[in-house]
Amino acid sequence: MSEDPEVLTTVTGEVRVVRVAGEFDFDTAERLVRAFDPREGGGATATVLDLSQVRFADSAFLHALLQARARHLEAGVPLVLAQPAACVVRLLEVTGTTGSFTLAGTVTAAVSAARGVSSDGPTEG
């Protein structure tokens, strides 16, 4: 891939925000699995994934998202996808997994949703 992926994690109040940027494929998606793990949240009670700067995402990226979803459900920690880039939206649509996630149009909306989302499953944000 031509663009090196970046992963930046911050904590805003009790919500961990993971911002990812660049191109993610089989060779780079493993970084996401670790970054998306709810146990890495430093005590955060919710996680927001800012996907607005993703330029390429393949099935390995989707696998990382689905693993994150499962781990968050298991831990009882809400997970919200914020502002997914067009390639991420397309990946979710093509694979029929859009309904598996809580989506929000902005990071601010995602943080608000994460604070109020039930950990039982996805809702519209």
TrEMBL record:
Listed PROSITE patterns: STAS
GO MF: anti-sigma factor antagonist activity
Annotated STAS domain residues: 5-114
Highest taxon above the source species: Bacteria
The protein, known as: STAS domain-containing protein
Organism encoding this protein: Streptomyces kanasensis
